[in-house]
Backbone:
């Protein structure tokens, strides 16, 4: 088995699961279901500034988080199922796919946090009211 394949597969699946969980949390954060807190959600100075900033930031993060979860799990699940059902070693292409998926998930997660922070700052700069 390609030595880099399994760790990359685990990393891709783990990052994707985190993005999926964070997507669920941002769904709650973008609605009245969960306000600013120190336990769950995207916690930046801007998103914690007010309820409006919290909701706007979490709403802005949702598309990137969902995309990250779909890309990562869409790559990790079929590759893991293939590996579990196959006795052959994966080709180097599988390692490349896992590496690209993990990188895409990480970049999209960072993009989600950036978008959340930017949207929350706009609300804070406008006096705390959501547009």
Residues:
């Amino acid at each position: 088995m390609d030595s880099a394949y399994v760790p990359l597969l685990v990393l891709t699946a783990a990052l994707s699961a985190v993005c999926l969980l964070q997507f669920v949390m941002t769904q709650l954060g973008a609605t009245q279901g969960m306000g600013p807190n120190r336990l769950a959600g995207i916690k930046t100075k801007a998103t914690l500034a007010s309820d409006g900033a919290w909701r706007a930031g979490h709403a802005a993060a949702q598309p990137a988080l969902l995309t990250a979860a779909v890309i990562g799990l869409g790559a990790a699940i079929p590759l893991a199922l293939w590996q579990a059902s196959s006795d052959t070693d994966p080709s180097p292409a599988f390692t490349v796919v896992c590496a690209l998926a993990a990188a895409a998930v990480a970049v999209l997660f960072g993009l989600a946090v950036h978008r959340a922070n930017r949207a929350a700052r706009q609300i804070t700069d406008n006096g705390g009211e959501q547009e």
About this structure: The helical segments are 5-30, 51-85, 92-125.
